[in-house]
Amino acid sequence: MSDLAFVPAAEVAAMVARRALSPVELVDSVLARIDAAQSTLNAFITVCADEARAAAREAEAALMRRDELGPLFGVPFAVKDLVNTAGVRTTFGSVALADNVPAADSVAVARLKAAGAILVGKTTTPEFGHKCFTDAPLFGRTANPWDRSRTCGGSSGGAAAAVAAGLGPIGVGTDGGGSSRIPAACCGVVGFKQTLGLVPHDLTPDGFGNQSHITPLTRTVADTALMLEAMAGPHPCDPHSLGLPVPEFAAAARAEGDLKGVRIAWRPLLGNAKLSAEVRAACEAALAAFGELGAAVEPVDDGFASTEPVWLVLTQSFWNARFRRYVPQFGNRMSDTLIRQMDRGAGHSAVALQQAMFERTRIFREIQGWFARHDLVATPTLSRTALAIDHDFFAPIEIDGEATDTVRNAWYPYTLPFNLSGNPAVTLPCGFGADGLPIGLQLVAPHLGDARLLRAAALFEAARPWAQHRPGATVL
To answer: Of 179, 180, 212, 421, which residue is the catalytic one?
Structure first.
């Protein structure tokens, strides 16, 4: 069964459907791998083994009855512990909610289950998903499966690490500033942030001003498309979801044809000053593959400014409004990095918050304007490979031997803008650094250009395959 650990979800579902693979044996195998990796990788907060085995037995019975099967029937999946799961502990990575058990699934989780997927556990996240490293007082640190001395990224670090290490083929993450794309790039998997509202978000208290997404994390583009097709669609909980069309994403992700006529803007800098030479080289080599597929790639540098100041006002205000209430009781057991960032933003005025909302609209209009000349935009996902697992969140990072800015400004300035604008964006593995760690290329499309993005990603994946690379020796 260990040979199945890296088989894509689409193939797993097909094997189960034709009875070449037992869902009971498959779930047992995944649970065994999770258990074996937990002491070194630490990717899970909660493993729901009993519930998963019961669901697998029900799936087996459905097979015997020849019931109609969903597109993800029998496929194990894990969910970031910021997303509600009925009857399964959901802690948000915080001691304040260590015993929280939701009564109902989040919409995206319910839809994956309806498609036949089987929940195996809840993956690690920094407290309330507040940073790009995955550690918290509740559970400790989650390591990168390629090198345990490096971070897996965050805040969907547990989900990305689990998928990369073969602890299940698919995972659910969230992305409010890069929280799926950052760990996906660190761990060498596909991280997709869809158009705002395409997958309903029922957990944010600010449905209208939301910039966070519930997202797929997978090893292949086709699996991302399958997850999106299952999770997407209007729902009354999310005003941004209402009226949005849901394309046939699985069909869009078939690697058919070419990219003739597609215009791609290459933006190596996006408000930052420094990019690792090896990351630039890997991304430009990847863009050559797009050129071979017929696309026209044009470097662009129009002085786009850092979006961190706007993102910080919006996000720190949100954190204070939502999480400050836990500090009097749990403050000495909460993450120092969360409390310090809330404290830094505690003085934002109502006027400053409204001005940040105005600026968010301006950024949306600027980014959407890029697509008058180009069909897609390409950037690095991160400016360098994964940082040390114990890197100080507030300290400068080093790029090519040179101290630069702090992590948000210098490491992932490429992800924040597209949470503010709501554009779909995907990170794809495109090579490895000298340290043996994965490098990611980010592609961005106009609003509702998700199918276009998946098609380009699938064609690139076929031209430059990556799923055969496995980190296994450092995990099991």
So the answer is: 179
Q: Which residues of the chain have pLDDT under 50?
A: none
On whether the CB atoms of residues 97 and 54 are closer than 8 A, the answer is: no
Q: Residue 365, exposed/middle/buried by CB under 10 A (0-12, 13-18, 19+)?
A: exposed
Question: Active site residue: 22, 29, 80, 193, which one?
Answer: 80
- Give 35-92 pLDDT, tens digit per residue: 999 999 999 999 999 999 999 999 999 999 999 999 999 999 999 999 999 999 999 9
Q: What is the pLDDT of residue 325?
A: 98
- Ordered by start, the domain boundaries in the chain are 2-474
Q: Please check whether residue 430 is in contact with residue 464, taking contact to mean a CB–CB distance below 8 angstroms.
A: yes
2 included as an active-site residue: no
Could you tell me the fold of the domain covering 2-474? Amidase signature (AS) enzymes (3.90.1300)
Question: Which is catalytic among the residues 155, 241, 335, 383?
Answer: 155
Q: Are 40 and 83 in contact (CB under 8 A)?
A: no
Question: Is 155 a catalytic site residue?
Answer: yes
Q: Could you give the 3-state DSSP secondary structure of residue 361?
A: helix
The per-residue pLDDT for 425 is 99
